[in-house]
Amino acid sequence: xxxxxxxxxIYILLLWPIFGFGQGSLEPEKDSLExxxxxxxxxxxxxxxxxxxxxxxxxxxxxxxxxxRRRYLILxxxxxxxxxxxxxxxxxxxxxxxxLADIENKREKKRYTKIIQxxxxxxxxxxxxNLTKTEGQILVKLIHRQTGVTTFDLVKDLRSGWRAFWYxxxxxxxxxxxxxxxxxxxxxxxxxxEDILQRNFQNGTLEYQKSALEFDFYELTNKWLANK
Length: 228
Prior knowledge:
Keywords: Coiled coil. The chain is mainly α.
């Protein structure tokens, strides 16, 4: 299916004069004690090197058959569709958490939480209604990836425990569990979702957002390739 991929992250350091880097040119300046420096226009601090962004080397995709390829492409389409909702949910949760930390009055905290709840519901309800069962389940997993908290617990924290139970029971009717977690180490589909995310972060289709969960993508890749 997929070939073994070496675990590595490339850091590129530029130690020689370069022109046309970014928005300004770079010029070498010799120092009698420390050797050559790079001067970036607009920056008064001389540098000996320029640190570029971390680049992830991804393995070449290969499939056992047309069916496996088709399943991956379907999963890719659904993942790309719902990831922006999970990303925004993480951003809203971070904003809510930071804001609540600054509010001491319990009544004000409750009032602000309701405002956020109403905003999220009005913003997403209609669009989320159009998701398929599998898209809804992928979204639940991605919300866990981006927030570190299950959708069930998020609802429980923002609402009541009974409302979380009710939402989960309703979701189960449609074969969606709000308690579902994102577990690429033990779930092959979750690993493929992570693979899809990394590729689409890199090509710019999706806007990058760091996972709230800790895992090593290269180690996961090696594991699943070995268990092929």
